[in-house]
Structures are given as C-alpha cells and as structure tokens.
Write a structure and sequence with these properties.
single chain, 754 residues, elongated, mainly alpha
Amino acid sequence: EILDAPPQRGCVLVGQEASRAATMAPTIDNEHKGELAELKTDLYDPKRTKKALKKMALHASLSGCGGVPNVSVLLPDVMHCLESNDVELKKAAYLFFSALAATNGDAVTMAFNRIVRDVSDPNPLLRAIALRTLTSIRVENMAQGMVEPVRVGLHDADPFVRKTAALSVAKVFDLSPEVVESGNLLAEVTGLLDDANPHVIANAAAALNEVRQRAPFSVLEIKMPTATKILAALNECTQWNQVSLLDTLIAFTPSSERDAVTILERVVPRLNHSNASVVMSAIKLMLYHTSFLRSPEAKRSFAAKMAQPLCTLMSLPADVQWTCLRNLKIILQKYPNVLQTADVKTFFCKYNDPTFVKAEKIDIMIALATPENVHQILSELKEYCHDVDGEIARKAMQAVSVCAINFECCVDYCIKIVLGVIQDKVPLVLQEAVVAVQTVFRRYPDRYESIISEVCSSLEEVSEPGAKAAIIWIIGEYSDRIEAAEEILEIFFESYKDEESQVQLALLTALSKLYLNVESDTSVDMLQQLLAQTNESVDDPDVRERALFYWRLLAGDLDVAREVVLAPKPPIESGDIVEGMGEEVERILSKRIAFVSSVLFKRPSDFVTYKNLYACGKDFMDMGELETRTPVGAAEENGNGAHEVEEKAAAAAAKTPEPPMVDLLGDLMSLEVSPAPPVSTHPQVPTEVPVFPSDFSSTPPLAATKDIFSSPVMQAFPDASFPAPSQGLAQGFDEPSPQAFAPKPSQSNNPFFD
C-alpha cells in the first residue's frame, strides 16, 4: 500500500522517484478554479456524482487541447467512488480513470492498488472493467504488477472476463514485452484459442495478431484441431471478430493437401459477407492456402470462386472501393490468374466515381488486358482521354501507351488514339501523347515514322519537360530522315539555359546524333555552341559530365562515336502493376492484405517503429539494429507472424545492386579514372610527343592510355593530353580548348576536367 500511503515529513525523494513525484503532482489550474470547485462539490452529491464523473472523463480525454480544466487534481476525490456498491457509479469512475490514463498515466498510479483489489470483485462486470482500466495505465514500472491480475483473468470462470484479459495481454505487451514473455502470458493466451466460447477465441486471436506484428520471434503455432475450432467460431462471431480469426489462420500451415482443402471450403462462405474487410481477409487466407494445392483444376476452381466477390466490391462506397482496388493490385501482381474469369467491364469507370477511384480502376483494366479484350479496353480509354478531368485524361493516355507496348496487335489502334489527341491539342493530354509516341518508337523502331510530322506540328503546345525531352529524342533519333531537324532543335537551343536538366540532357544527345548523322557545318556550329554554353552557364554536374563526354568522344574517331551514340537500344518493356516492388516485399504484403501497409505498398517497418524491450534469452531480430538473422524459410515453415524476418530479408535484397547492363554507353559513363599524374616542372622534349595520324597507326601512347581507362571502348581512344585525330578535326569539330569545362571552385576536381 505504498502508493496509497501519505508522504512522511522529512522524506527526501531522489533520482527517478523525485522525477515521478513531480510528474504525479497536479498543477494548480487557476484559470478553471471555479469549474473545478463545482465538479468537486458534485462528486460528493449522490445525485450528481455520475454526471460529474462523465464530464470529468470528457475533460480528461481532451486534456491535450487548450481551454480544458486539469481534472487530475480531483483524482483523490474520485477514489471514494470506488468504495461504493453502485455498479453504475463504479463504471463511471473507471471511465474517468481510463480517460485520464491515456493522457496522464502517472497520475492514475495512486489508484493502482485499489483497482487491483476490484479485479477480485464478485461481480464479473466489475472484474472486467477493473482489469481493462488497470492495463490502460501506461507506466512501464507498473507492468510487473499487472501480470498476476491478468493471469487470474485469463482463467476466470466468466467468458466476459476472459476475453477482456486476452486483450489486456496485448496492452501489457505493448507497454513492456519482456514482462509478458517472462510471465509466460503468451502461452496462456494461445490456450484460449481452444476455449468453448467463440468470443473468447476471437479476442485471443485479436491479441495474438497484435503481438505477432511486433514480436521479433514466433509466438503462435496452430495445429489442425485448433484451426478447426477457429473455423467453427466464425459463424458465431461479429464481423470484426471474424477478421481477427481469419488473420490468425494465416499462421496455420497445413500438413497435407487435404487440410488445405478443408480450410478453403470452410472459408468460402465468408466471400459472400457484406463487410469488405471480411471478404478481403477471406481472400487473403484462400490465396495463401491455394499455394498448397497440387491439382491445377482445384486451383482454378477456387480462383473462380474468388473472382465474383472481388468484382462485387466495386459496388461499395468510393473510399472502400479505393482500398479494395489498392489491395487488388498486389493480388494481381502475385496471382495474375485470380480474375481470369472476371468481366473487365466491372472495372470501367462510372460517371460519378471520384478521381482517385478512376485512377486505380485504369490500372486494374491494364492488368486484366488480354489480346481478346484489349480493343474493348482501348475503346473505353479513348473516351477517358477526352475526360474533363485532366488527371484522368493523362492517366488514360499513359494506359494507351502501355497497351501499345504489351500488345502488338493493337498498336495501330493506339496510334490512332494518340493522333486524335494530338489533333485536338488539349494541352494537358497533349504532353502525355508526345511521350506515348516516343514510347511507341522505342518499342517498334522504324515502323511509324509517318506520324513524326503530326507530332512536330504541335511543337508550340509542348510545354512540360518530359514532353519536350520526348520530342527532342524523336528528332535526334530520326534526324537523318527529318529535313528540318536542325531548325526544330534550334528552337530548343535558344531556351537551353532556362530548361530543366532532363531537356538539356536530351538536347545534348540529339545534337550529337544530328552531327553524326548529317555532319553538316550547321550541326557542328550548334553543337560547339551548346557545349561551350554548358561549360559557362550550366551548374548541373550531370549535364556538364554528359557534355564533356560527348566533346571528347566526338573529337576522336567518328566511327567509334557512331557505335556508341547511335547504337541500337533494347526495346522498352512495361513494368509491374506496382512499380518498384521487389519479390520479397510482394510476398510480405500478400500476407498483409487489408492492412495499412498493403494500401501504402510499404513494409510495416517503413512507417511504424515498435519498441523492443526484451531482456530474455530469446533469439530475435530487432528492427534493423541487430545483425542476427533468422532464415526466412524457417519463419515460413513455422507459419508464424515474425514479419520482421521477412522485412529484413526484403531490405537486404533491395540493397543488393543489380548487375549492370553491358553496353558501350554504360562502359563509357562508368569509367574508373585513376588520379591525374603530377605535373612535371621539366619541359617535355618535342620529339617524345608523337602526333597520331588519322589511321591510328601509332600504338605506344595508345597503350599508355589503355592503362588509365578500364573501358574496352576507351581502349580505342587517344590519350586526352594529345591532339585529337585528324579524322574528327577534318569534319570541322575542333579540339576542346584547355579552358573548356574547367572545374568551378564549388565542384569536385574530376580527372576528366584536367
């Protein structure tokens, strides 16, 4: 009874106790002194006590806001209410304690022992309320004192107390995980999954699901008898309890195909539920257990049963539709055949759909596209391209370009749609149409050059950097077939300084291609002016590096330059439904359907941090701070929810660099240049500096250059310190001056600038 005893005179508190006492001491609220006095008077009036407690609970809930009285000063006056035999009065008092504990847990600790006493009250309702209030006190030092009351509640004869105690374990675990582990409460909660009451089973499942999300070790192993009891409890629980039970069954790994079929057949009725969360949880469970089936016919049969419920979700309110569509994108990326029998018209946009729903539906339409229905989808997208909502119109044009990439049979129809948009000259959609033309040219080169004139006719309406870069790329790629290529590029040359880096890089490449294709005096002058202008006025290091690269490349052998700059590009391919999602992250999110992480397309650890306070001898993995690893396969074999193991494996996979593509341009852009040699103060003998003839017949200096550059293409280049070959100079491209691209003080001393 230390906390209830009055402080002794002369007692000096030091360290943590002094800090805690200062926190518990109520501050004087002079601003609301009158209101607090009135509440205190009402607490001792039997007719007004309940109303006063409810009002104080409201003030305690809003204590973080301004203008609310500090009701914690009345806590000693509330204590006498717990001595009453009136159940309603005690419920009101515990309501106040719960509200105050959420914002000022230290203040409620003085009532801790009194609340513990009510855990043994003869009334089961008071026992449950006392246990719930007790575990709401967010003071870590009090966690040890909560273990025994919770343990007693887990074995209580009343099911209402047992289900309250099950949820209390999750609350204590969040407060101090090591206390729950040392008290062996998790094993006792797991035992409640075999309880005779379905509501107790549901609350135990909800508590274990909560613990699984943050426990860095496996906390749950479900056998077939327990899974059978969980399935039997589904029909007697509320809809949200059904979600908890279905999520718990994810931790069950069937030992045979027969067990998997049993689970699937018992879960199929949940697909017709009116609650979308129940449907999505059932689909998540079915997708997981379908992977244990060996028969292709059985897999197709269960997939067909899931298709219609997923389509039915499109009749729900817009916000629920959006959540379901986001989850559906993950499902289709991992299980592409789930909606194989669905009608794509179900996902066509309605006139009253909000923008965010229409955008997700367009992505689903593209994911469901096949050679048989792609023309039907394109007819719908054609209408969307003329939508009054500019965002949807742009999204539809992007979808048209994806269809052109994926299905060669519909490219002509896609070109027709794009040309129609270009002729309409709607500013927002026109930008995406130009990018779509570039995409078609990259996927099908040398097939649709006849539409270049249509694209160039809309040059004045192109205003966005992406569209400008696309049209510049088209001009440079087909500069040998466009008569006015120099005049068109000159338009962008005039505004070069003010353009974005994306446009500047595209213009550098396009002019280099123009020079190599045409080799006219005008192209030489334009390119030299552009390179000089880049050196003088551009601060972007990427643009300056690209310009220097082209200068040195074009000053050498033009045949080698053509092999590099005009090399054929690999055909463009469409990406995944959710771009940037690796296989490991996809596997993690497929088990977290209907969670926030599946809506955000992120691992839980990317936006949630849990506190780990374990001092027990468990092998576990901390959230990115410990290097100990548990094999991912072991976690999957156990079927438990230690998702941090999967997340760490996914993070490691994401950090593993992909092997670079072996191409000429990649070699030249990733040169490993050794430090520049020290400048000698002795004059060089002229006879020791040979000048390369145009046929590259001289080899000794070339061998020295090969030692500096590791790129195989760079082996053919002359040393940068020697005069350029006569072949490049004969075409009118001068050697760069010693001051060209001199490093600015703010830039690093790149050896390329020496």
